[in-house]
Structure prediction request, 203 residues.
Amino acid sequence: MRVLRIYPTANDARHRCRDLALRRLGLEVALVAPNAYGSTWGASPIEREMPHRRARVINKGSIPLHLWDPLALRRAVHEFDPDVVDIHEEPYFPAGAQGVLAAGCRPVVMQTCQNIAKRLPGPIRALRRWSLNRVAGMYPCSAEAAEVLRVWGFRRRVSVIPFGVEEDLFDVRPVGERIGFIGRLVPEKGIDDLLDFGPRLLC
Prediction:
């Protein structure tokens, strides 16, 4: 099976661990990687065994409102001729819709992390609906994000695939009696559960 993965963080070697693991399982994996994305993620070397195409990202400093060079996406699909196009963008991002459009009639799967059923502006809802009507399956990062997909009306295949943790980078062992939290102080982040730790909680 040939899989073309389109995602803006492909310059990060840690993110490519999934691609390399898929190749070890026998899949042919190719990437569309940006020339630059975000404020500091410039182009970085990609493994020689990993076929890839670089693409310009417009408005690269914005996570929700960046855009791919549409010609580069179409060329990548034409060159790699994938069986499946895997788009690691939210279905309501313009860049996500670009990937779906570039895939043409090929099956598409998409990632989502949105775990809050926010009411988005009308044009963004229309973009999301258009994308979700054309994808074969979604892989949310959590059960909560999967539930939001159902609220949005998605009825096709959903498989929860949590984000991985690199054991080489983290030695996760309890030390002391304190717990740390980094994130927004909202109920959706589990703050209510953390409050039981009282003064041991560091935010």
Remarks:
- The first strand starts at residue 2 and ends at 6.
- Helices lie at 17-24, 70-80, 94-103, 122-132, 143-151, 191-194.
- The radius of gyration is 18 Å.
